[in-house]
Amino acid sequence: MIKSLYERYQHLLAVLASKTVYSEKFPTEVRIETINSCNSTCSFCPMGLYSPETKNRKVVKMDESLFKKIIAELVSEKYNGMLKFYTENEPLLDKRIVEFVRYANENLPSLKGIQIDTNGKLLTESLGVNLFNAGLTYLHVNDYTETGGGGLNNKKEPIKKIYDKLRLLFPNVKMTYSSRLIHEVLDSRAGHAPNNDTVIKQPIKSACVYPFYQFCITSNGNLGLCCVDSSFEEPLGNVKDSSISEIWKGDSFNKFRNDLLKAERNKNLCSQCTFFGHMNLTDKTNSKQTLYKALSIPDLFIRKLSSFFRK
């Protein structure tokens, strides 16, 4: 009974968050994975060098023509949301990344921002300078080591030192640095974390905010379920064949969202996910905060409850 009430409470918060951030016309966050691989050995991540999924994955770089097709549609939609050049991958492995950032920035002047998350192994001062000059507005560095932070890039330079130099050179650009343990045991990544074999017998009865604002494109054009979808077992479409708008408004995506609003996690990935599905999207960040904080009642529940029930 207690668990049931708790799940109902979490579900209500997830529904409120979902309805608050949802735009029926177009997603407000587009993620583009231009290469589907990583160069780290994090034992909690299915994209790690030694993970079972990586061993069976063919490395694919996104065709430049497909990338430009995606940007062209964002231009036609006058897109002003967030553009992120990563999902579950290491974006700096793609040597075209600076030019991709530049191309997006030049063609999409109304973007809320362009973001990259990186493990820093390929980050150098010159690469960072080039990325920011090209139009990058937010860089987050996760420095993974055995002891938490203090790692070196491929040129044996301290990652934190490079980050500090970039912060001095670009004081007005958003940057964050996190010291991370390479063998952290986190959540189960919806059943895909190599070091967490948790199996959920009954899926959480809760909605999830991610599919109500995110659009995550892998390097071959497939659309993932959310930002932790590393396997893309059940893609919602492919941007080679359909437009972002068509997929976002399409039957598959709408059914997926409607099922979640009914607390039905029917997708394989969702059935093993331990995330209750509600987040605070107010973007209040600093060096000690993550981009998305767990939802607090005053922040969303009280402010949005009355408008929710008027709909």
Strand order of the main beta sheet, please? 5-4-3-2-1-6
**Number of helical segments?**
10
Radius of gyration: 19 Å
What is the residue-mean pLDDT, rounded to a whole number? 88
Helix and strand sequence: HEHHEHEHEHEEHHHEEH
Considering DSSP H and I runs of 4 or more, what fraction of the residues is helical? 25-40%
Spans with pLDDT under 50 lasting ≥5 residues? Answer: 281-311
- Choose one word for the global shape: globular
* Largest sheet entry: 6 strands, parallel
Strand residue content? 5-15%
Task: Determine the oligomeric state from the structure.
Answer: single chain
Structural class estimated from helices and strands: alpha/beta
Number of extended strands: 8
Distance between the termini: 30 Å
Can you describe what's shown?
The structure is a single chain. The protein is an alpha/beta fold. The protein contains ten helices and eight strands. Helix 6 links the parallel strand 4 and strand 5. Helix 1 packs across helix 10 and helix 3 packs parallel to helix 4. The longest helix has 20 residues. The protein starts with a helix and ends with a helix. The relative contact order is 0.17.
What tags apply to this protein structure?
single chain; alpha/beta; two-stranded antiparallel sheet; 10 helices
